[in-house]
Amino acid sequence: MTHLPPQPISPLDGRYRSAVEGIGDHLSEAGLNRARVHVEVEWLAHLTERSLLGGTPLAAEELAGLRGWAAGFGQPEIDRLAEIEATTQHDVKAVEYLVREQLSRQGLDRIAELTHVCCTSEDINNLSYALTVKDAISEVWRPRLDAVVAELAAQAERYRELPMLSRTHGQPATPTTLGKELAVFVHRLRRQTAQLERIEYLGKFSGATGTFAAHLAADPSVDWQAVSRDFVEGLGLAWNPLTTQIESHDWQAELYARVAHVNRILHNLATDIWSYISIGYFRQIPVAGATGSSTMPHKVNPIRFENAEANLELSNAILDSLAATLVTSRWQRDLTDSSAQRNIGVGLGHSVLALDNILKGLGRIDAAPEVLAEDLDENWEVLAEAIQTVIRAEVAAGRSSISDPYAALKELTRGRRIGRGELAAFVADLDIGDEAKQRLLALTPPRYIGIAPELLAHLGR
């Protein structure tokens, strides 16, 4: 057997790379190292701007040059880091040496010893992860989610008035509208996004065991807590004052649990749409040149929603594991989180891929009003709820002496289908007021939708 050229193991880096490539900009090894370089450079700027530990402010062009280099982190830096780490066998130390090399190139050797000063590797790592995760969520994952919600909201409005037979326990039930059912998912997802907005991205910068011991030893006159807080908040993160060597990762557990919850709502959406397609409520719009089955030419398979289901399950397998494991670290530090966090991008990547498929799937379906209408017309028994409820109201108002209205309708309708004529005859013989009787005789399954269309007004709040 011949050996293939090096191939990606993960489908995210192979078959589906184009759909998830934005995640790699942030949550890859290169993305993490770019963030590490950024944090190291900003710590140097923070120290020198405040003339701490013997540093003096850099000239504007010197600082701009250093920040410009960090912002332009690319393939040359990626390659050089690999060379350095081959010797150091330590990824963060390699970043420190890379920054020192740049300082030398810029003639800034005078501040070289301030590189990584008072830092443990986790001071750099926790801030870098917070920055990369925050950017991945806000710049890649969240826009995809917002696009899905926007499309769902548009379809909910489009089908606001379209009557649809409900199915509870898979059986015919009180009608609704297709728009209202889609609006339920919009409402659920918007609740989660509102809660996502409130999640803090925390950072610590307090040394080897969170005590500022090295800082105080270097200069006991400085308010190092204030320096640390200003630095972390200057990066756009929330400061965590009480930690061990590591930031405790509770915010990550909260975030991944929330993303997983969104995934589960999306999974529910995917299975519902798949089921509606299966019974003909939605038609799929064929894609020119596409093949649904290798042997059955007629088929248009709901593959977008099936792909989404699988990827949402894979995403949650990873995100649930991260949320469960990252909150535990033995005593003041162990390295289990280091290995686990390298899979954040995989977890979010599968969710991004699912969102991409759901959005494409939603764009390739149309409601089939005639199928919905036919289904409603074949299930007049769903009006039994309305009839027995009206009878109860009539009995309570003294306009009827019917005993046990529920039992009467159960005997007429349970486990069998009845048509308009049979139901009309039943209503005509009822001992109820004439106004109530006329109201029931005018009722049809498509009209028995309550205030379903009006409920969409809640989406505008």
TrEMBL record:
Q: Which PROSITE patterns match?
A: FUMARATE_LYASES (PS00163)
Report domain Fumarate lyase N-terminal positions.
Answer: 26-308
- Boundaries of every Adenylosuccinate lyase PurB C-terminal domain copy: 329-449
Its Enzyme Commission number?
4.3.2.2
Q: Which residues form the signal peptide?
A: none
The lineage's top-level taxon is: Bacteria
- What's this protein's name? Adenylosuccinate lyase
Task: Give, as one word, the top-level EC class.
Answer: lyase
Q: Which reaction does it catalyse?
A: (2S)-2-[5-amino-1-(5-phospho-beta-D-ribosyl)imidazole-4-carboxamido]succinate = 5-amino-1-(5-phospho-beta-D-ribosyl)imidazole-4-carboxamide + fumarate; N(6)-(1,2-dicarboxyethyl)-AMP = fumarate + AMP
Q: Which Pfam families does the record associate with it?
A: ASL_C, Lyase_1
The record's PANTHER family line, in alphabetical order, gives: ADENYLOSUCCINATE LYASE (PTHR43411)
Q: Which family does it belong to?
A: Belongs to the lyase 1 family. Adenylosuccinate lyase subfamily.
GO terms for MF: N6-(1,2-dicarboxyethyl)AMP AMP-lyase (fumarate-forming) activity
User: Which species is this record about?
Assistant: Leucobacter weissii
